[in-house]
Amino acid sequence: MAFLDHVLQQPSYGWSDEQGALAKPRISAILKEFARRLNVFKDRKNWLPFFSWLKVLCLVPFVALFVFKFFTLWMFSAAFLYGMIIMGSHGTIWHHRFCTHGAYRFKNRFWRFITQNLTINIIPEEIYVISHHVHHAKSDQPGDPYNAQGGFWYCFLADVNHQPIAKNLCENDYARVKRLMAHTGVRANTYRQYQYWGSYVNPFRAIAAWLLNWVFWYAAFYLMGGHALACTLFAAAGIWAVGVRTFNYDGHGHGKDKQRDGIDYNRNDRSINQLWPGIVAGEWHNNHHLYPKSARSGFKSYQLDLAWIYIKFLYRVGAVSSYRDDKAVFAAKYLR
């Protein structure tokens, strides 16, 4: 726990107050911290959160073109399918179940690369993975980077204010960060490079990967449906990029106890199973907190899990070599 206590960069308002309870900053303090941490002119080590939001800003023109030029019922349907289902499921498949929890293993680097780039590149793996380990260790407790009890803005801006790794890790602790990230295929900075850039990933590699991904997908969408389809799907990715930042606030009941008997079985935190994120992205959140290393989170008959369907398909064609499925364990403990 000592490592997880300090692996993330603590906000200026701290994780807890003098009594050890969650520090609940005012919205003004959250926004001030957000602006400070995006300032790359003051500190180059702010480059990764700045880069993360730069990608979101670059998608704004596509949203405008979709709304004011290319909007039709068919394009709206395409945007819904891509943004809600494909982008949502990919986040669960890649960032959540593989990069963070290692719930399954790829047969080789080729299939890992394909899955990593299955959609438009938005979220840096480093920001998601390390902070998500802390989230599970300290769920709904002080130190949880997106503690819903801190309020909507506390969660919505967490990728900048709470999730980046600390900039002053010792060499041994940085080596532990590298071990948590090694299986993702994202190449690590050396410790000296980390001290200079304040990140696991090198900015030049991150920018190159982003540009190649976006060029490939825009070209692919253009060949399928011209500028209209390409702009529409990039717009959908932009809408998803904003919407996904609201998930943990909703997925933990807005910081209140909204768990229901017979639906939410994990009572160690305030995570809840929600029908919409479950169906469109396989994100049955309470189930996931109950068995975080499971490649499947849809345990009941009505709990559609598209992320699991993709993982199982790759296993059947030989692209995934192994996986963990806790459905039988869940059924034996809670349903029988």
Question: Any descriptors?
Answer:
336 residues, two-stranded antiparallel sheet
Structure in words:
Residues 74-308 form the Fatty acid desaturase domain. Belongs to the fatty acid desaturase type 2 family. Its EC number is 1.14.19.-. The chain has 336 residues and is mainly α. The protein has one domain. The chain is built from 17 helices and 2 strands. The chain has helices at residues 2-6, 27-37, 47-58, 60-70, 73-100, 109-116, 125-137, 152-156, 158-161, 171-181, 191-197, 203-243, 247-251, 275-281, 285-290, 306-316, 327-335, and strands at residues 104-106, 320-323. The chain has a two-stranded antiparallel ribbon with strand order 1-2. The model has no long low-confidence stretch (mean pLDDT 96).
> What characterizes the major β-sheet?
2 strands, antiparallel
Please state how the strands of the largest beta sheet are arranged side by side: 1-2
Rg from alpha-carbon coordinates:
20 Å
- Can you tell me the residue ranges where pLDDT is under 50 for at least 5 consecutive residues? none
Give the percentage of residues in beta strands: under 5%
Using DSSP, what is the number of strands?
A: 2
Helix content: 55-70%
Helix count equals: 17
SSE string, helix = H, strand = E?
HHHHHEHHHHHHHHHHHEH
Shape: globular
**How many distinct folded domains?**
1
Quote the distance from N terminus to C terminus: 34 Å
